[in-house]
Amino acid sequence: MSKNNKFWVIPALLVMGVIFYSSATPYGDQDLRPSLMSYLPLDAMKPVLEPIDFMYHGKPVNLASHGPAGLVEFLIRKAAHVTVFLLLMVTSFLALHKLTSLRLLPKLGAAFVITVLYASFDEFHQSLTPDRTPYIGDVVLDSFGGLVGALLILVIWRFGKRA
After folding, report:
1. 2: pLDDT strictly greater than 80
2. Using CA atoms, how far apart are residues 80 and 14, in angstroms rounded to an integer?
3. Which of 32, 42, 57, 90 is deepest in the core (most CB within 10 A)?
């Protein structure tokens, strides 16, 4: 393994650091609603937001329960879960790809395990942070992000071999 290959661990560690920092920040310090109310035409978005109605963590998620700013913030936060754990999956895979001689599927499997374990750790870490609550549903959402990352890697791998 060359010194250059060790570099590939850094992106995964950076993604983990961003996740850790975010989980260590109380919700009140991350509240997006004031900014959303200042910068988005939330009243104009109501027709788009109105059909959204489901249960999450035993509570309704809809326009009536959250208001426009709260619902948009909820959707942004959950999209961030998927996105950041997709990035963790991809960066973990790249590190394993550069540092090991494993075949594709074992590398994908190991990167996915890293992603799910870190998602679990992240929820535990949130339980230690004031004004934050852990939820197994977020681990599922994070794991979904990892799965999307794995599928993205497979598609790129497949098309890359054809080219």
Report:
1. no
2. 16
3. 90
122: its two tokens: 């992240």
CA–CA gap between residue 152 and residue 83 (Å, rounded): 12
- Name the DSSP class of 135: -
CA 129 – CA 151 distance, rounded (Å): 33
Is 81:145 a contact under the CB 8 Å cutoff? Answer: yes
Backbone angles phi, psi at 55, to 5 degrees: -100, 140
Contacts of 30 (CB under 8 A, 6+ apart): 22
Asked whether the predicted pLDDT for residue 163 surpasses 80, the reply is: no
H/E element holding 55? strand 53-56
What token pair was written down for 22? 């975010």
Q: In this structure, is the dihedral angle defined by the CA atoms of residues 6, 11, 16 and 22, taken in order, positive or negative?
A: positive
Q: Could you tell me if 142 and 119 are in contact, meaning their C-beta atoms sit under 8 angstroms apart?
A: yes
Mean pLDDT over all residues of the chain? 94
CA distance 83 to 136: 17
* Helix or strand run (H / E) with residue 60: strand 59-62
